[in-house]
Amino acid sequence: MTLDKLHALFLEHPDICTDSRRVTHNCLFFALKGPNFNGNEYAKEALDKGAAYAIVDEAAYKISDRCILFEDALETLQKLAVFHRNYSKAKIIALTGSNGKTTTKELINAVLSKKYRTVSTQGNLNNHIGVPLTLLSIKADTEIAIVEMGANHQGEIAFLSNIVQPDFGYITNFGKAHLEGFGGVEGVIKGKSELYNYLLSNDKHVFLNADDPIQIEKLDSYVKKIGFSTENPQYYIISLIETNPHVVLEMEGVQCRTKLVGQYNFSNCCAAVMMGKYFNVPLEDIKAAIESYIPENNRSQVIERNGLVIILDAYNANPTSMKAALEHFKIIKSDDKFLILGDMFELGEDADKEHQEIADFCEASGFPNVFLIGENFNKVRTSFKKFNTFDSLKNYLSSNPIKHASLLIKGSRGMALERVLDVL
Predict the structure, then answer these.
(1) pTM of the model
(2) Of 119, 139, 167, 413, which is most buried with the most CB atoms under 10 A?
(3) What is the DSSP string of 199-232?
(4) Which domain holds residue 105?
(5) Is 101 annotated as a binding residue?
(6) Which of 12, 42, 73 is a domain's end point?
(7) Which intervals hold domain Mur ligase N-terminal catalytic (predicted)?
(8) Is 287 helix (H, G, I), strand (E, B) or coil?
(9) 165-206 tens-digit pLDDT
(10) Rounded Cα distance, 317 and 295, in Å
(11) pLDDT per residue over 210-242, tens digit each?
């Protein structure tokens, strides 16, 4: 079957499924492979559960006319996404960066959906499978699609950019994330800038944070750029009013009181404001969209429980986001503060140094009550309490409960520190 015929079939059956446990009626099932599974083995099950067709890549599993054989199911999914992207009339905004991608994407979608029919990446499905699925979620009436792109090594953003073929792009920041895969901070900058390489070489528009020196340097002579700044009048001016604990910003004399905590979320809000302005969303709608956005999925959530004010930021962590969260927690007004910090992953040979620097920063900041959890934090030189495992922390907190305090919980996803809530 040719790609155009597969696309015609997709238009008749626009639901895509890659997991036989989540088959929907009349969907197209793509038999993808992973390290520990072969999707071809589940093609019959998918058809029995109601899938219209199954795309397989092993002849032995072409058991009926409803099984369509291609050389590579994943590559076919990606090519179908590119075909559909070019078939669609929607404008596409691509988004990447070290920190804040998902929150920024959700804020942009909240703002733009006030005026346009939009689709956006669901959750953080931002890899070589999730990005094609996002493109294939574009409907006939979709006007703008916001596509999040993640990466942990060189070449990945370039590959995804060629699939997405964005009309606009934005990089949230360049931080100390996935250092192991990228090969250090310079590698992160190079890897994330692959989005700029695509946009500039194809004469597309670039959104930027004009207060970020790296972004300014990268885009210095580029004409098609739209930016925000706290002070540079060449760009759209947005002011930070306060972050205690929630971010309050001001644009054109209008204050916007968000439900987001931390100065690091200011630029995320600014990106959404800037894009709203560019796409002519009324200012009152921009304000309403950002003020009504409530973070979830363990991202900078503020939870009040049993006399505690908890900032739960346990979705992920790297040295840049960890330090930003600590900087914000320093200015929170509270009589008693506690920190529960978990290991940061994917730092490679920098792991020992980066964890030591976080411990040193906590000491220099005068935080009295700091609990460090994980094998990496267990190696640092510090007077703070250290726990090699979550269970050891759990046992300690059960005997020494935290009462009437402000508490920051932050760590990498693999640490699953949201479990602390059950102990508290």
Answers:
(1) 0.85
(2) 119
(3) HHHTT-EEEEETT-HHHHHHTTT-SSEEEEESS-
(4) 88-292
(5) yes
(6) 73
(7) 16-60
(8) helix
(9) 999 999 999 877 777 777 778 888 898 999 999 999 999 999
(10) 16
(11) 999 999 999 988 999 999 999 999 999 999 999
